[in-house]
């Protein structure tokens, strides 16, 4: 049934292009840490529709490989890349973050937004270890996920999983940073703040006024209303103290 659709797929169906917990604010912070240029070789893991990859290629002219597990998202990505005329800059393929199909020391930057939260326990470590493996020495890992500051919020995590229909495992702000250090990264730098995924101000900033209104209008259609209201209520009331975290680390 529609109301059991995975949260980010549901929002994409409503017309949301920014499917990240901290929206454009967090993504722009990550890009500022990336030291991008035309010579930068980039891997975007969980590239989804390639919104970030397209912006990077347009802004810096860098070469980008994108991977995602969802074939439907990759179809949209290929269409978006073609529409932007960037087939010579961006290529995408289906691949698992925990077993990347690239040699060691291949990339200057790995960027991964809103995916590690969805991995539990050792799966998180396995993916981050893969990012470390495919990065060149001195390469930069840029990640963007869900976090919390107050340990009392751990009780909300089960409700978050039920709301977005993904069995997620966010970490506290300090635990995210510790995890990268434990897995060999250095110069770990982070910023965090309120989640903007479904806040009215965040949606307007990420999608523009008309884009935000279109998403709300689609969300209130009969077939979407139950899940839209459930997600909107959770992120703006029950889970309003959840945070986004963006982390830049160096191999």
Radius of gyration: 17 Å
Distance between the termini: 44 Å
Largest sheet: 8 strands, mixed
Globally, the shape reads globular
- By helix and strand content, what is the structural category? alpha/beta
Tell me how many strands there are: 8
Strand content range: 15-25%
Please trace the helix and strand order, writing H or E for each element.
HHEHEHEEHEHEHEHHE
Number of helical stretches of at least 4 residues: 9
Question: Spans with pLDDT under 50 lasting ≥5 residues?
Answer: none
Mean pLDDT: 88
The percent of residues in helical segments reads 40-55%
What does this entry look like structurally?
- The protein has helices at 7-14, 23-33, 51-60, 71-84, 122-134, 157-164, 173-182, 200-219, 225-238; strands at residues 41-45, 63-68, 90-94, 107-113, 135-148, 171-172, 186-194, 243-250.
- With 251 residues, the chain is α/β, with parallel strands linked by helices.
- The chain is globular and about 50 Å long.
- It is built from nine helices and eight strands.
- α6 (157-164) runs antiparallel to α9.
- The model has no long low-confidence stretch (mean pLDDT 88).
- Strands 1, 2, 3, 4, 5, 6, 7 and 8 form an eight-stranded mixed β-sheet that branches.
Please give the structural blueprint:
Layout: H1 7-14, H2 23-33, E1 41-45, H3 51-60, E2 63-68, H4 71-84, E3 90-94, E4 107-113, H5 122-134, E5 135-148, H6 157-164, E6 171-172, H7 173-182, E7 186-194, H8 200-219, H9 225-238, E8 243-250
